[in-house]
Specification:
Layout: E1 9-13, H1 30-44, E2 48-54, E3 62-67, E4 70-75, H2 92-105, E5 112-116, H3 118-131, E6 135-138, H4 143-147, H5 159-171, E7 174-177, H6 180-190, E8 197-199, H7 214-220, E9 227-232, H8 241-254, E10 262-267, H9 275-288, E11 295-298, H10 303-312, E12 315-318, H11 327-334, E13 339-342, H12 347-350, E14 355-358, H13 363-375, H14 377-391, H15 396-414
Parallel strand pairs: 1-2, 1-5, 2-4, 5-6, 6-7, 7-8, 9-10, 9-12, 10-11, 12-13, 13-14
Antiparallel strand pairs: 3-4
Helix pairs in contact: 1-15, 2-3, 3-5, 7-10, 8-13, 11-14
Length: 415
């Protein structure tokens, strides 16, 4: 990427979920925040970014600029409407055709491809071979890791996914891991070449997620007069919303005075083929445990509004059964709110002085940690202050600097 050369152009692949979707809806989550945040800053560095996603409505093969240097390409891949993630694989060859079509329109020039998740990795492998450019792969979750930590009744990830991940890991020029834990999993479980793995943590937007007055934040949400525990995430078993509900029931049962005004706010939308059933199951669980009047469901929120929820909360619950990184925990800590999280995956890296880690997913253990935070104002203040300070080490500028450096390393080597 020498001075005077054409502006480098990168194809970023996100087949199953659009980077412009509202996080917390459908399959949209931390990955969407990551892609959009990094793309905006890459464009600011003079790198042109095309974000490819599957067409799910509107014009087929629509190309639109969402910011200077950033285009979103809605490529045709199956019906131009939402389909279950499990059905997307059959449409990957058609999606590849859309990527190649735009490449031809660009004069067959992409300098690099960056795939996100294993489905996009399938397309990235093929495009790498056809276009003769380097491939960077990010997975965000790993099938083998998820299968080791399934909730009761949760369906294991299929063999097709595991084989697909293995192929992408074997062929990618660089594999980005958010934490040392995932880097170790890539090497230990998938046989990744350690020389190709780079640890690049996600960031947090400190202009949005910062400490605010708790009472003011509660007033903005019309939740004044309540103590608030918060769960943010997609409503799927793997994220542990059931553990959050059971945890609140434990706190109410063991410390009724402490929990007198306590409610659990659940912010997020259902995900997957049985989305409606999952919401019903959660509310049935709350009813069975006698806390249905303490559980409030909120739809996914824009980031600015989500910051109010974090700031309004006394404690944020992150009881995921596995977690590649844990962006919710990081955002909550940036707002100065203590976190009680499961000691799994990336949460071991993200939650340090700003929260309490709980081994396993027993609601009694999580409830004990929540009661410690709610019952000890000095502990709560210390966790909040420390978490906000430690979160400053994670920024999207730092993430983008690392990503851009990896891009340049590969492009210059391929020149």
């Amino acid at each position: 990427m020498s001075i005077g050369a054409p502006r480098p152009r990168v194809a970023v692949l996100a087949v199953h979920t659009s980077p412009v979707d509202q996080p917390g809806t459908g399959d949209s989550g931390g990955m969407n925040v990551y892609i959009r945040s990094v793309a905006e800053r890459l464009a600011g560095q003079g790198i042109e970014v095309d974000l490819f996603t599957r067409c799910r409505g509107g014009a087929t093969h629509d190309v639109r600029e969402i910011a200077p240097g950033i285009r979103v390409v809605s490529a045709k891949a199956g019906p131009c409407q939402p389909v279950p993630k499990s059905a997307v694989q059959r449409y990957l060859p058609e999606f590849l055709g859309g990527v190649l079509r735009v490449a031809r329109e660009n004069g067959n020039r992409y300098d690099l491809i960056h795939s996100h998740y294993w489905l996009s990795g399938w397309v990235g492998r093929a495009a790498k071979d056809i276009l003769g450019v380097p491939l960077v792969a990010s997975f965000h979750t790993l099938g083998k890791v998820k299968n080791y930590s399934l909730a009761h009744g949760e369906t294991p990830e299929p063999a097709e996914r595991l084989r697909g991940e293995e192929r992408v890991i074997g062929e990618a020029d660089r594999i980005l891991a958010p934490t040392p834990e995932e880097a170790g999993q890539l090497v230990g479980l998938y046989g990744a070449d350690p020389e190709r793995v780079r640890i690049v943590p996600p960031g947090v937007d400190h202009a949005i997620f910062r400490p605010q007055d708790r009472d003011v934040a509660r007033a903005r949400l019309h939740l004044s007069g309540l103590r608030l525990a918060l769960f943010v995430g997609r409503l799927q078993s793997h994220k542990g919303p059931d553990v959050a509900i059971r945890t609140i029931a434990e706190v109410v049962a063991r410390s009724p005075a402490l929990a007198e005004d306590l409610v659990l706010a659940i912010v997020g939308g259902p995900s997957g083929q049985h989305a409606g059933a999952e919401v019903a199951r959660l509310m049935e669980l709350a009813t069975a445990l006698g806390v249905s009047d303490r559980v409030m469901l909120f739809p996914p929120q824009p980031h600015a509004r989500l910051a109010d929820f974090y700031s309004a909360a006394d404690v944020v619950l992150v009881p995921s059964r596995s977690e590649s990184f844990g962006l919710v925990a990081l955002e909550a800590q940036a707002c100065g709110t203590p976190v009680v999280a499961a000691a799994v995956g990336g949460l071991r890296t993200v939650v340090r002085g700003g929260g309490l880690l709980v081994e396993g997913h027993d609601a009694a253990d999580h409830g004990e940690a929540v009661r410690a935070v709610l019952g000890d104002p000095a502990l709560s203040e210390r966790l909040g202050t420390t978490g906000a300070r430690e979160s400053l080490a994670f920024t999207w500028d730092a993430t983008t600097t690392e990503v851009g450096s990896i891009y340049r390393e590969l492009v210059e080597a391929a020149a």
